[in-house]
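Researcher: Quick one. two chains, 1508 residues in total.
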Amino acid sequence: MEKTNYSSSILQYIPYFFIIWSDDLLSVSEVAVVRRIIKNDPTLSEDERELLYTWLHKEAPPKWKVIKNWAEIISNSGVKLNESDTYPLTSFSKKLASLNGGDPSINEKLSEIEINLGIQPNHYNHLFEVEVQKEKTSNYYSGKEIHQILMGEHNQQLEHFGEFLSHPNFSWEVNRDLDGFRKKVLTQVQHLGEKGYGAMAYPEEYGGINNMTLYANIFEYLMFVDGSLTIKFGVQFGLFGGSVQKLGSKKHHDQYLKNIGEAKLLGCFAMTETGHGSNVRGIKTTATYTRETDAITIHTPGKNDNKEYIGNALHGSMATVFAQLIVKGKNHGVHAILVPLRDENNNLMPGVTIEDCGYKLGLNGVDNGKIWFNQVQVPRENLLNKYGDIKPDGSYYSAIKNPNKRFFTMLGTLVGGRICVAKGALGGAKMALAIAVKYALKRRQFNDSIKIQEDLIMDYPSHQLRLTPPIAKSYVYHVTLEALMKTYSDDTITDKREVETQVAALKAVITWFANETIQECREACGGKGYLLENRIADLKTDVDIFTTFEGDNTVLLQLAAKGILSNFNSELNSGGFKAVLKMVSSQIKDKLVAINPAYSNKVDKDHLYNPKFHQHAFDYRTRRLTYSLAMRIKDYIKRGVPPYQAFLKVQSHLLALGKAYSCELAYTTFVRYTDSIEDQKNRELFKKLGALFALQEIREDATWYLEHGYIGSTKSKAIRQRVERLSTELRPHIENLVDGFGIPEHCLTAPIIR
Amino acid sequence: MEKTNYSSSILQYIPYFFIIWSDDLLSVSEVAVVRRIIKNDPTLSEDERELLYTWLHKEAPPKWKVIKNWAEIISNSGVKLNESDTYPLTSFSKKLASLNGGDPSINEKLSEIEINLGIQPNHYNHLFEVEVQKEKTSNYYSGKEIHQILMGEHNQQLEHFGEFLSHPNFSWEVNRDLDGFRKKVLTQVQHLGEKGYGAMAYPEEYGGINNMTLYANIFEYLMFVDGSLTIKFGVQFGLFGGSVQKLGSKKHHDQYLKNIGEAKLLGCFAMTETGHGSNVRGIKTTATYTRETDAITIHTPGKNDNKEYIGNALHGSMATVFAQLIVKGKNHGVHAILVPLRDENNNLMPGVTIEDCGYKLGLNGVDNGKIWFNQVQVPRENLLNKYGDIKPDGSYYSAIKNPNKRFFTMLGTLVGGRICVAKGALGGAKMALAIAVKYALKRRQFNDSIKIQEDLIMDYPSHQLRLTPPIAKSYVYHVTLEALMKTYSDDTITDKREVETQVAALKAVITWFANETIQECREACGGKGYLLENRIADLKTDVDIFTTFEGDNTVLLQLAAKGILSNFNSELNSGGFKAVLKMVSSQIKDKLVAINPAYSNKVDKDHLYNPKFHQHAFDYRTRRLTYSLAMRIKDYIKRGVPPYQAFLKVQSHLLALGKAYSCELAYTTFVRYTDSIEDQKNRELFKKLGALFALQEIREDATWYLEHGYIGSTKSKAIRQRVERLSTELRPHIENLVDGFGIPEHCLTAPIIR
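Model:
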């Protein structure tokens, strides 16, 4: 028989050892912590110290009987576990030790084990068969404080905006018929215009404050009210207004921008055609200039060449129409022209035909339509002429001579919209997560036979694993999009190609993430999630199309990958011999890392949580994918495969690169941001979120990392365990984390969380 | 310079070699095929033969210059590629060889390369810069024939049923208001009832034909009409009728079953409560027997104890109510009781309160409601008494003494509903796939600059990879569910525990699969997929809840895993020493396989396509997961962790086992089925679908296989390539494959495919 009557000095260690060995918690750095505390514990005799040391060998763990004996000591103790104690486990240990009577001789340093091993009540309370005094949410962190950190300079303005949304105009209700829903959303957009929220991104002289970042945050906040509102708001102020602002010149701004910002002039952004969505350059609508009339004729030539899915089509009185500009018989490529759609009595202009797109999966508050133009004439001045103009003498002029470059410069000015789409999707994900988490903190189902109350579903490990990593990702993406928008709207950066690549990749990754997350939240709420009143259903149907509009995700990822490749090639070409050497040497370094088992199987906690490891893993993946992709394409071309076909053959490789690149970019941005947080307590929390993001990303692509020998089996498993453990560790703070999203209380109308 | 003037005999090989080396197509078995043909080619001189051999070394491939030279020969030839030739590449080669003038001396065996390497026009036509005469769909297979094979004995009945669905009652339209939609669906259900389709699974004396398998197929076919119809049909005839049939006795059958089958008596299946969904055993509604009145009192005790999400609640006049049966003060556990809800004038019965659940994400044609009972009295005879009865003397009697066993026996009779749910979800996936594929065969976007017409999106590799594996999976799951339903409804099998485990696992896996597939199809159709008229949107919102109802997927997978574990344990326990030995020896065999690099890195085509490899991979995974799971739980329990908590700690392991088990089961069933197909041509097609299913499954879980050393890096990459190649190989037949689902033409109303 094992010794079962321990001294008080030993007894105080028993709960720790029980937890450690029930869960195989130990890694090398953790053994060191416990060992140090034992070593410096003045209450222990040498024999006792030796006994404790024998329980610290990972290779020779204590026998089952011993561990089971500990379990019995704990459950027979009658001691209660109080989760709201500062150090619950340490208090529990103290009480256990004093049971033996006599002087308990408590070692005050014991709490360091609790802190350093990151042991949280929800890690162990289910291991003890003792009464637990639970707390649903820890008050160690504050949701409000987290939100302030996240919003930074815009915190106050957004708080006001959040309060403004409590206006009855913005209250949520089921809307099933097109007309009623569209009218309501129109009123909301007009209300926002009147209050100056539409013009945020415009210059001051047109009622704005020149702040695109704040505009994008407002756009995201509107998702908490309704997806249709968000999109109609974006069509009016971002797409229509933005096209006038960015593709037009002063005359257009003076004439239209103020009215647009106030929603007095409603308009459309007519780019997509039935026959041409992703391939904008191939659109068929023509804009032919006639010298005699000094007018431009807009025309829809064929059956599938009408504009489609155009938002505001039933309310708008004007449209920015994208068309092939033909001057003196020559096609100068796609340009944007302002075309009146309706007169002041709201009658369609001659030659304009508009048809309702009808019911959609979601966003039914947005009036999408199809538009045909039959030889519609507009004055020459209506050409948005910043990048290409027709001079009074009837000749075409552009400062950008290369038509290809001109096309991409024009489209580039519209990239802000893509950031907004990603932000909107993210807002939807946050809302769904907040609802699912708050529901899981109320809903109980199943229990241990010894308990009376059923368990909160938030306390199930599978539920934690379902909801916590997406919360961490939401934080990382939020910070990334903020940074991207700042770069994008920084006028001192003139070459926007890099940010365009970044936006393309992140729009795809984030909108997919949002859809998956909302789906996960729907399922996590069971049948309740299926009811419209609980809001997740609408989020699901509204956010769905975010993966398609403003650029189909699959197309965007390929676009991004091509951008990365061309950077890589131009680096190689311009850098010459030195660059080649550099690349070759980094290839060699990669290989060295990859074949070093000390690295590929390093599973120590400190290493796995270290941002340096994560960054290296992401950087390594992007570089390897870029290099191997470039080589594959080169190979094909050398063998005589036409370039267009060579790119087709590497499509899935391109998609992988686009994803890897976004991940690296997002994480790097987040780490830089985290380091800048002044308050240590919250910085630690953000670091933990970053680690969870990174480990989850590696876990999701573990196949690739294993295939390339970057991680070994043991490390792969350890990463999965760490994701599970971090999710559990964050459980006491999960409500604070969703509160940190800052969703106004009056927007969280779902009855399941009230 | 390389030799560029090849003889006719060599020239005829050039297109093959070009394709082989442009794509790195060669594996060992493929080299053997080509080598054999060269060896036996009488048109070749010895020198020519030697030259061709030098182009067959995988380790020393021909130089780029050589390959590029081939490309030039081909593009300068002016020869057209005609895809509708029987052997397009061979005809092309012949024409190329005869260009040189003189006697072309064609080797008639060349077509064997084309056949054996599985080279299809869409593998190579993009590699040639020559004019291609394309065909959109090959007529090698027939969709109708495939469908006949799939439907087997029920083919004719289902064909009739499909035609019946052309009745105007079943035409699709947008339905946005609850009342109108519900009325329409009610009419449809009544129409089906009148025609005898509701009673299919009932005995002949009640209007049926005792055919549950046919019933399930009809259920699936209804998904092609509308999801709400499917579910309301299932509630009325499957759940309500099924509960009377399976839990009731002859008196209930005689009194109700005929009327139920004809939809003259509409009813509900009232099991789920607001407070208790997944945990049925914990429901709170009580059914208390009173001796004095010889009646049972149904009562909703608390705030959250009402029935919820009950289908037919607004139209039904009766409900099978699940409640805790209390006789003489003793709770005998959950039983089912028939409770009238409305009188003949459609007024609610005293004590019954019903509330509309309101708008849902989808299935708005189903009238779901909440039901409260306030001391509602029904006669003793209303107890569905097959497994537990109240005798005339007022005492409780059940042949199954163990309450636990009784509960699971009762629930077990309802497992057929779960198979139907999986079939319905699968029907939704098939419909979405058919629409997405047919759209992709019409829609063009982008092109190579040298072509006038843009490419069909179905010809993009990423699109093929998106849609083809789910088609293969749909075939596998269809066959699996057919087999499951046959086992389930086989009365000679009395112990249904195994089939229950199987159904639990497959319901989860298939409903998740359906949701992912429908989402993929929505995105694959871009903006068009978002319009309700194109049908995918409704499928998405309807099928969503299939992951939750009839058992939450996460809960079901855990249930299945526990079933597998208990089989494993009882096998060990009953088998004694021999079983332990057997297990140990299979463990050792596993290890041997795992460490054998000849196996874990075997990448030859024949091996990768071999069902033996797939089956071993699936079997190995299930066994290892079962064994390690059993050991982990044993460990926890040995250490003193309470069993309930031990299971919580292995939740994600349980989910993994449930999934692995379904995959193995589905594949094994499919292989057995495939082997039974008599016609060789179609058998080969089904084999290819099986291989695609298996390789895609291994690919999706490659992390696990790599972690366990079962496959090495090279094999993992080779599997991914094979999935891509198989998807491309099936491209010419993809329309036949979706036609093989047998969706009636009149149900495919989506305008994008008309």
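The mean pLDDT of chain A is 90.
Researcher: Thanks, that's what I needed.
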